[in-house]
C-alpha cells in the first residue's frame, strides 16, 4: 500500500544559535537524509524528497501494512521534531472501478 508522508519541522519560535544549528544538522538533518536514502534503496520510499527552502520532507512510502509504515516514519530522526501527516493512497484503477460502480447505480435509477 502506498502512503503520502509529510514531515514539517515545527518551529519553536527560538532562533537557532550557531551551536544549536550545528547540532541540529548533525543530529537530525544528516541522519534523516541518510536514513531516507536507505529507504529509497530498499524500495520503501518510491518518490519524493526534501522540500525546497524548508525543513520538511514529502514522500510516497510503499509498505505492506500500517505497522510497517509506522516503523518507517519512526525510523526517521526528523520525526522527533516534526509535525507528521500520513495519507493513505489507492491506485487510480481502483478509484476508477469504485466510481464506475457508483455511476452504474446512479444511472439505473
Account of the 3D structure:
By secondary structure, this protein is α+β, with helices and mostly antiparallel strands. The protein contains three helices and four strands. The protein has helices at 18-41, 66-74, 92-107, and strands spanning 2-9, 45-50, 56-62, 82-89. The chain has a four-stranded antiparallel sheet with strand order 2-3-1-4, covered by helices on one side. The longest helix is centred in the first third of the chain and has 24 residues, at 18-41.
Question: What topology emerges from the helices and strands here?
Answer:
Layout: E1 2-9, H1 18-41, E2 45-50, E3 56-62, H2 66-74, E4 82-89, H3 92-107
> How do the strands line up in the largest sheet?
2-3-1-4
Helix content: 40-55%
- Provide the β-strand percentage band: 25-35%
- The topology string of helices and strands comes to EHEEHEH
Poorly predicted sequence stretches spanning 5 or more consecutive residues:
none
Distance separating the two termini: 35 Å
Largest sheet: 4 strands, antiparallel
The secondary-structure class comes to alpha+beta
The number of helical segments is 3
Radius of gyration: 18 Å
Q: What's the count of strands?
A: 4
> pLDDT average, as an integer?
94
Overall shape: it is elongated
Notable traits:
single chain, about 110 residues, alpha+beta, four-stranded antiparallel beta sheet, 3 helices, 4 strands, about 45% helix, elongated
Give a short summary of the structure.
The protein is α+β, with helices and mostly antiparallel strands and 109 residues long. Helix content is 45%, strand content 27%. The protein has a four-stranded antiparallel beta sheet, covered by helices on one side.
